Amino acid sequence: MKKASLITLKLGLLIILLILAYKTQDLKEIIYLIKNINIYYFVIFFSLFLITTAMASTNLYLLLKPLDYKLSWKRIFHIDLLSIVGAFYTPGGIGGMGIIVYLMTRSGVNLKDASIVVLIDKQISGCVALFFLMIYVINYPINDISINWNMLSILIISLVVFGLSLFSKLVRKVVRGVLTRVNIYKNHVRLLILNVFLTVGIYSVNVFVYIVCFYTVGIVIPDINLIFLTYSIFMLINYLPISIGGIGVGEFTAIILWSSMGLSSEQILAGFIVMRGFALVSSLSLSGLAFFLLPNDMLKIMKKV
What we know:
The chain has helices at residues 2-22, 27-35, 41-64, 73-88, 94-106, 111-139, 145-165, 169-182, 189-216, 224-237, 249-258, 265-292, 297-304. The chain is mainly α. It has a domain at 37-142 and 183-254 and 265-294.
C-alpha cells in the first residue's frame, strides 16, 4: 500500500510539473517546431548515445579491475545496454543500477562489490556535476536573495537528514562497507583520475546531445557555456528519487534557466520533446537488441518460466 501511495505521489508531482511547464505555452508553435525537425540529426544523436554508453561501461570496467574480477569490457558493455531503459525510466535511475548489480552478480561478482562499484561510479558523476554547478554559480550569480536562501536551506536540510540517517544500524553498516571497499582504491589513484576524466567526457558528450536536439528543430544556442554548465543541474535532477528520468522537472528547470539567453519557452520545450523522443527510441532499441540478440541470463530465466 505504501509503495502504491509513493508511486501515485511521484506521478502526481510529474503531472503537476508538466502542466506548469506547458500550460502557458503556445502549443501551436511547439508543434510547428517539432513538425519541421531534421530527422538526420537522429543519426548523430544515436551515435553519441552509443558513445556515452561505451564510456560509462569503461568506467565500470576500470572500477572492477582492483577487485580482481575477470569480467570483460564486452560483458560490461552488454550489461550497460540492458540497463539503459531502467536508468532512463525509473525514479532516480534506480532500475538501471539494479539491473547492473544483478547481472554483475550473475557474472560472478560479489553482491557487495557490484553495489560498491556502481555507487562509487555514481558518486564520481555526482562530484563532476557539483564541480560544474559551482562554476555556474560563480559565473552566473543569482541576484535573487530569496533563491540563494532557498538553495542554502535545501543544503542544510540534506546534511541534517544525512546526519540523522547515521543513527540507523542499517545505514551505518552500509557506510562501513563502503568505506572498507573504498580503501582498496587508495593504491589506484591513476585509475580514479582516469575515471574522472572519462566522466567529464561523458558529461561533455551529453551536453552536445542537448545541443544536437535543439539544432534538430532549427534552434541555434546563443550561449553554449550556459548549456554546458547548467547540464550539471539536469544531471543531479536525474538522481532524484522523485524524478523519472527528469521528466517534468527538467523542462520546468530549463525554462527558468535558459530563458535568460533569449530562447522562448516554446523553443526550449520543443528541444526537450525531441530529446525525450530520441532518447526513448535509442534506449528501447539498444536495450532490445542487447536483450534478444545477445546471450544473457535474463532471457534464459524467462524461457525457463
